[in-house]
């Protein structure tokens, strides 16, 4: 075989290799690693939580959330974790916007005496709850806007086994007036708690402590917004009510536990039956 034949053979092999490479690139998709969605950048801690920290001369912000939500699959866990991150990010952005940090001047900072330990502050800490078919997180949010005292409120997340966020109305049969019954149950429990906490300081009537004016009825009215902060703990629905919603700040917050057995007739089929 002369050199010309060898050159022709090599050229044919090279052409075939090129054609095969082009064909393979179209028929075999390249494996692409999909990055995990992230709404809030945090640092993984030894306890398995992510922690977000931000500090300036004006404010400090701290928030934590679980690395893994204990659900059926890794996909469900990642979906739920992203929802938590997004919710915390929204709270942080709202805190910054409401406080108008972007528009705060040096004169404003000096007038309010900001500096050293005197800063705006936001902290979001959670407690988790487990139940058959659900996993919940209750965040206590502390917001110090340099007023008479810090404000406290709740933000909750409830997930089903697939990582879908569950809202209060998702638990109840829409054909029944479940909000009216829920409102009554919560109102009775809050009233009992108020009497136990403030009984001796309240005017006494024929039936014990007189709560007239001490409870804000609008905070207990049959509105989904009033009971939006909830978790599912074992076999009970737990409603969390922040300070100011139903009573003066000094009365504090309220936690109302309602066994699902007590509201079974109002639940959707398959919910904690």
Strand order of the largest sheet: 1-2-3-4-5-6
Total discrete domains: 3
The succession of helices and strands, N to C, reads HEEEHHEEEHEEEEE
Give the N-terminus to C-terminus distance in angstroms.
Answer: 85 Å
**CATH superfamily assignment of the largest domain?**
Fervidobacterium nodosum Rt17-B1 like
Radius of gyration: 28 Å
Largest sheet: number of strands, sense, barrel closure: 6 strands, mixed
Q: Which CATH architecture of the largest domain?
A: 2-Layer Sandwich
CATH class wording of the largest domain: Alpha Beta
Helix proportion = 25-40%
As an assembly, this protein is single chain
Strand tally is: 11
Overall, the morphology is flat
Uncertain spans = 3-8, 12-17, 27-35
Q: In the CATH scheme, what's the topology name of the largest domain?
A: Heat Shock Protein 90
Q: Helices and strands: which structural class? A: alpha+beta
Keyword list:
273 residues; 3 domains; 3-stranded antiparallel sheet; Heat Shock Protein 90; 6-stranded mixed sheet; Actin, Chain A, domain 4; 26% strand; 4 helices
What is this structure's SSE topology?
Elements: H1 3-27, E1 43-44, E2 49-55, E3 59-66, H2 74-99, H3 106-111, E4 120-131, E5 134-144, E6 151-160, H4 178-198, E7 204-205, E8 208-209, E9 230-233, E10 236-241, E11 254-259
Parallel strand pairs: 3-4
Antiparallel strand pairs: 1-2, 2-3, 4-5, 5-6, 7-8, 9-10, 10-11
């Amino acid at each position: 075989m002369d050199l010309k034949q060898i050159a022709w053979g090599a050229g044919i092999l090279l052409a075939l290799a090129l054609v095969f490479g082009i064909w393979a690139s179209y028929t075999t998709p390249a494996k692409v690693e999909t990055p995990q969605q992230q709404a809030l950048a945090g640092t993984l801690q030894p306890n398995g939580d992510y922690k977000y920290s931000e500090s300036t001369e004006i404010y400090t912000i701290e928030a934590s959330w679980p690395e893994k939500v204990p659900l059926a699959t890794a996909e469900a866990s990642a979906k739920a974790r992203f929802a938590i991150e997004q919710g915390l990010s929204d709270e942080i952005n709202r805190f910054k916007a409401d406080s108008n940090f972007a528009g705060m001047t040096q004169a404003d900072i000096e007038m309010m005496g900001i500096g050293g330990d005197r800063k705006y502050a936001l902290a979001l800490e959670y407690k988790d709850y487990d139940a058959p078919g659900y996993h919940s997180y209750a965040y206590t949010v502390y917001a110090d806007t340099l007023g008479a005292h810090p404000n406290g409120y709740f933000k909750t997340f409830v997930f089903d086994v697939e990582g879908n966020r569950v809202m209060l109305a998702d638990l109840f049969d829409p054909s029944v007036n479940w909000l009216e019954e829920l409102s009554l149950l919560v109102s009775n429990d809050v009233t009992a708690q108020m009497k136990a906490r403030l009984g001796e300081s309240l005017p006494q009537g024929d039936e014990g402590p007189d709560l007239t004016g001490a409870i804000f009825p609008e905070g207990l009215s049959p509105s989904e917004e009033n009971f939006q902060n909830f978790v599912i703990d074992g076999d009970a629905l737990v409603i969390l009510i922040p300070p100011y919603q139903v009573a003066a700040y000094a009365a504090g917050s309220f936690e109302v536990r309602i066994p699902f057995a007590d509201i079974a007739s109002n639940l959707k089929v398959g919910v904690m039956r």
